[in-house]
Amino acid sequence: MGLLTQGSPLNWENTKKYADYIRSHGIIQFINIYNNLKDRQKDVLKWGDEVEYMLVELDDKDEKVQLVLNGDEVLDTLQGQGEKINPNHPTLWRPEYGSYMIEGTPGQPYGGTMSEFNTVESNMGKRRREASSVLNQNEILCTITSFPRLGCPGFTKPEYPPTPFESGASKSLFFPDEAINHHPRFSTLTRNIRHRRGEKVAINVPIFKDKCTPSPFVETFPEDDGESARAALPDHIYMDCMGFGMGNCCLQVTFQACSIDEARYLYDQLATFCPIVMALSAASPFYRGHVSDIDCRWGVISASVDDRTQEERGLKPLKNDKYRIFKSRYDSIDSYLSNCGNKYNDIDLTIDEDIYNQLLGAGIDKLLAQHIAHLFIRDPLCVYEEKLQQDDENESDHFENIQSTNWQTMRFKPPPPNSDIGWRVEFRPMEVQLTDFENAAYVVFVVLLTRVILSYKLDFLIPLSKVDENLKMAQKRNAVKDGMFYFRKDIFKGCNPGLDGTSSAQNGLETDGANEEYTLMSIDTIINGQEGVFQGLIPILNCYLENMEVDVDTRCTILNYLKLIKKRASGTFEPQCCNIFSPEFFQS
Ligand code: GLU
Ligand code: MG
């Protein structure tokens, strides 16, 4: 979940004092990176996945399932026997928000050859076996998006009571601070988000109503000093801290593009897929022990780190704050970055005008300048006293400070200074699946999609406001089967990413229904195609595969993955009856 530094983080009051300082140096650092690396070309296509895991104990005797709060120890052991002694170790392990979480990636990025698709699942299997092997008896490693009983009494091992009245980080009625990773970054983010906002975060997820659900569904909270009662909505599952969001797990993929232009093109194209793949991977219906009426974690995390003040949220007129801000720091992207995307940028963009002008003055184009100036309306949340002094030519911590706490559906990642890493984009909306087979299927599907987009110069862009509407739709219960999503009809007629995108600008945003470039489609139509409406992504991928040299074994693996995606999209997927809790599952 971003940059980890050793040191003493500042409290909110002091962080705030340094906000302008961090931003101004962050911008200088970005300009330096840009100037040094904007012409960097011919980086090879590389990519990698990130899987987040939960440590779970199954207590057969008491029939209890709890989250085990020893991620730190497990991580130390895994790093100690892996990357610390062997730079070529096939797995890498990192901390995550929950002290019951860890994150694993392949040791080296994957490259551009087709046969590498055949190693994704086995590397995920390696990770699972490696981590499982260092756990205690009865403990297992789970790839589960939201732990159903997160925040219920006694959900952790060891059990800790929540501490709403003390000077804790969360002040949650439900989630003990011990369940937050012990690295100071995580509790500091938690506390500073709450202090900046001026109150606890408030997450309200609609409850799923069956015939036994009281109506209205209203909870009372005995430990509450009144704040939660005011924030909790009737007929909703109420949650009150960062852990309910950032304590969820996901599946991410990062791509290195061959140049900054290709990265910007991929960023835009993939942005249109975020809601589609989110709905397709939906895996999180349970929150705080209740069945909810949503299928995805996204809005929950968004609310869990929403540090905006009441003024910024538009609840009060602006007096002490600078901007009205329309979204949480964890939310969908607000502007396309490629020239082709320009005409579809129809979302109100709050930017820091001074930073915008400074970037333009440094020779950066409008689209990139406004993107950065938008990210930089945010304050830093976690500042280390020891890291304030930076060499802006050779370090980028201040830039990364703001960048890495803008958790959007896509992330545009400049190369770190003095590294051999190129311009990258990160695809962040996917929910993690229970098995490595499924996770590999989603990863390979998304990577293949980037290959066809680049090879055939496809164009999936639609107005960004429509992508936002899609993202709301994606989280609804059963969106994968019932939802209708705005999608581009003709993906072969796009603008050439090398040109400036103005040539076809006139017909881009027509509102006259029949002539629109996009229409509403089901996930099934988008993925599998429908005669006369859209050819379907799977048929396009199949066509690409037919034209590629692929060994028989890899082809067979890929086709199996695509079959899964097809079935999820058509609603005919039946999870295999494998028992993910059985020891055999982890040995296979
Ligand atoms: N766990 C977060 C999620 O489910 C992502 C944290 C990260 O950026 O690594 O989206
Ligand atoms: Mg992560």
Automatic annotation (TrEMBL):
GO terms for cellular component: glutamate-cysteine ligase complex. It catalyses: L-cysteine + L-glutamate + ATP = gamma-L-glutamyl-L-cysteine + ADP + phosphate + H(+). Pathway: Sulfur metabolism; glutathione biosynthesis; glutathione from L-cysteine and L-glutamate: step 1/2. InterPro entries: GCS (IPR004308), Gln_synth/guanido_kin_cat_dom (IPR014746). Pfam families: GCS. The keyword ATP-binding applies. Keywords: ATP-binding, Glutathione biosynthesis, Ligase, Nucleotide-binding. The keyword Magnesium does not apply. One of its GO terms (molecular function) is ATP binding. Its EC number is 6.3.2.2. GO terms for biological process: glutathione biosynthetic process. Belongs to the glutamate--cysteine ligase type 3 family. This is Glutamate--cysteine ligase. The lineage of its organism: Eukaryota, Metazoa, Chordata, Craniata, Vertebrata.
